[in-house]
Structures are given as C-alpha cells and as structure tokens.
Here is the input.
Amino acid sequence: MAMFSIISVDFFQLEAAQAGYLMSFFGVLQMVVQGLVIGRLSGHFSEAVLLWASVLGFSLVGLAMALMSSVFHFCLLMPGLVFSLCALNVVTDSMLTKAVSASDTGTMLGLCASVQPLTQTLGPTLGGFLYHNFGVPIFGHVQLTTNFLILLVLWKLPVPRKDKDY
Here is the structure.
C-alpha cells in the first residue's frame, strides 16, 4: 500500500479527492473485515487454516492485480485484498506471540508492529523502481509469485486441527 497514492493518481488518473475516497473505502472495509469477519472466523477455524486462506487470497488478488486495468477492477479485488491483509496480520501476530515465552510477548509484539513502518520506509523506493521500469502489473506478479512460494512452504508443514469443546 506504500505505492497506493502514486498508482491511484498516475495509473488510474484519479483526482486527489477521488484517491482520498478510494483510500477511505479501503480503510472502512478494513475496519469492517477486521472487526466483524476475522474475529468470527478465528472462532471457527484454526490459525493455520486462516493463514492458508489469507495467503491463497493474496495469490488470487495478485493474479487479479496483474490483470487489472481500471479503478473499477481494483475496487472489485479490494475485499479479497483487505481480507487477506487483515487475516494475515492477526494470525501472524497471534502465532508469533504464542511462539515465545510470556516474558518475551511484548518484544515480539514490538517487532510485529515495526514491520509496517519498515515497509512504509522501503516500499516507495522499491515500488517506485518497479513501477517506473515495469508498470503496475509487476505488483500483481510479485504478489502472486511471493505468495505462491509461501503456499508451497505451508504445504510442506502439517496443518494442526483446532480442538473444539462441545
């Protein structure tokens, strides 16, 4: 999302107000998905299943992003992107904090929280280079390839089942 404003103005030819509306739509959608959908899904499915779903969703969104040609197409793929982002953030934070001792939980949460500022710092430089040299479809290709490789790694790992109390 570090390149969002540049892509919306340059590629989609949106005015500043229109780009703001699009970003507001993204933010509201993110609040709804993270607040209402992810919590309910995490009650029914294990973290591993949600991780698989988010990475698979990212792969499909990456493919769609590589093929998109208008802001309408982007709006259509935005729910899948938002679901994948929210699920991945929640599940990875939870998995990582469970992987360390209770005394190291704060450190792990701090490391998790530092990822977004790092991507906001490095993202525009790398994204600008990719956008200038290859265009918008490269973001979809990179997303698809990266998440497909992650799916291959996840495929090799066993999927633990969530125990339910009946």
Notes: The two ends are 42 Å apart (CA to CA). The chain has a mean pLDDT of 89. Residues 45 and 162 are 7 Å apart (CA to CA). The chain is about 80% helix and 0% strand.
